[in-house]
Structures are given as C-alpha cells and as structure tokens.
Amino acid sequence: AQSVTQPDIHITVSEGASLELRCNYSYGATPYLFWYVQSPGQGLQLLLKYFSGDTLVQGIKGFEAEFKRSQSSFNLRKPSVHWSDAAEYFCAVGPYMEYGNKLVFGAGTILRVKS
Amino acid sequence: DGGITQSPKYLFRKEGQNVTLSCEQNLNHDAMYWYRQDPGQGLRLIYYSQIVNDFQKGDIAEGYSVSREKKESFPLTVTSAQKNPTAFYLCASTPGQPFTDTQYFGPGTRLTVL
Q1: What distances in angstroms separate CA A105 from CA A11, A59, B36, B41, B99, one per listed residue?
Q2: Which tens digits make up the pLDDT trace of B54-101?
Q3: Three-class SS of residue A62?
C-alpha cells in the first residue's frame, strides 16, 4: 500500500500566485515529516521538517507546511511563487517499521512557474 | 565548505560491466545512504550505513554492492546483475539518527546503459 502520496504529478502556477503542494500519508503515530526540493539534475535540499510542537512549520525560501493529524496531511505552501521556485518537490515520511524504520519518499510534484 | 561530492556526474556502462559510483562527505556524518531515482517513482533506498564497516540493505539492493571502509566514503558498485541500472543515483548523509534526521544530498550521478 502506498505510504506517502503526492496526488499532483505536475502543477503550474503563475509567478506571484500562491502555491499549495499536497502530501498525504498513512502512519500509526506522529511521524517525522520532511519536504525536499530538487532542481533539475541536482540533489535534494531540505525545505522544512516536522516531528513535534507547533503544527505550522516555517522553512527556507519562504515556504511553510502544516501538519494536520486528522487528515494525515503535511501540505507545503508559499504565498507568492517566484520563477526560481520551479523544481520538483518531494514529501518524505517515517520512520516506518514495516520498511525497516526507514523514510518513504513520495513520487514528487513538478512545479512549473509561468510568467 | 562542507558537503557531499559524487563522481562522475555522468557515467555510461556497457552491458555486463560493473561500474563504481563515488560518494565522499566532509561533514563528519556517521550515516550515509544510496538512493536510486527514476522518473515518477521518487527515491528508493539501495543501501545505507550507520557506521564504518557496517551497512544494511535497503529496498532495492539486488544487483548493487557497497563498502564503508572510511567514515568519509561510501562507494556504490552497480554490478552486471542489475538488469535495469539506467537511473539517477543520489548519495546522502545524516549527522545523527538515521532516517529521522535531515538528510544532506550530493549532486547525483546519472548512469546510462549503452
């Protein structure tokens, strides 16, 4: 069964518009939650992470994410998108005991920004 | 500057060849990881190592091998037993607990089978 779901494969937004990337997961307790960003042909960079405390997490580059336990979601948001935000975004969740206490990555969402 | 380096950036392999991908870090991190990335599939864990001279299989270890003789280095060998090796390979490391701490990624190696 899919443990981490990013429902949107591609999203296109206009520069200056707001952005929300969805991440849903199945997990028995409160997991560790991460959002990473990958520019084409590059490695991944951490945007933000959550494991306890305030459910609204601030990250780098103006991104934030909100943990909603009741919805098993950890959606990434940005109020105003810049052309440089065009990249692929990955949600990661764990550790999953059924996967040997490892992280599971979602399939990613490709963000395109139109001017 | 501290970071993770991967070499080469591009690698071409002929059928039946073994190839080795290099991963070096100067972050003084204990844990290191190898992931495979295919379009639309996210990252899949190949191997990971929590300390020197110890490593564990990930989800897709068949056809791959690793070594961890030094803290800084975690090379990955793609053997001829790996039937579909064309992919983007990412190395990562974490300073603390594996899989719950932030992972720091290298720039990746793109392997193509000719």
Answers
A1: 18, 19, 11, 9, 11
A2: 999 999 999 999 999 999 999 999 999 888 999 999 999 998 778 888
A3: helix
Query: Could you read off the pLDDT of A25-37 as tens digits, one per residue?
Result: 988 777 899 999 9
Nearest to B36, CA basis, from B94, B88, B71 = B88
Q: Cα–Cα distance between A97 and A3 in angstroms, integer?
A: 12
What's the distance, CA A54 to chain centroid? 17
What is the least distance, in Å, from the CA of B43 to any CA of chain A?
6
For B28: left if phi > 0, alpha if psi spans -120 to 50, otherwise beta; the answer is: left
Cα–Cα nearest to A108, from B40, B59, B37, B91:
B40
Q: Do A90 and B4 touch (CB under 8 A)?
A: no
- Residue reference for tokens 């997961």: A25
Angstrom distance (rounded) from CA A89 to CA A110: 6
Asked if B43 and A101 come within 8 Å (Cβ–Cβ), the reply is no
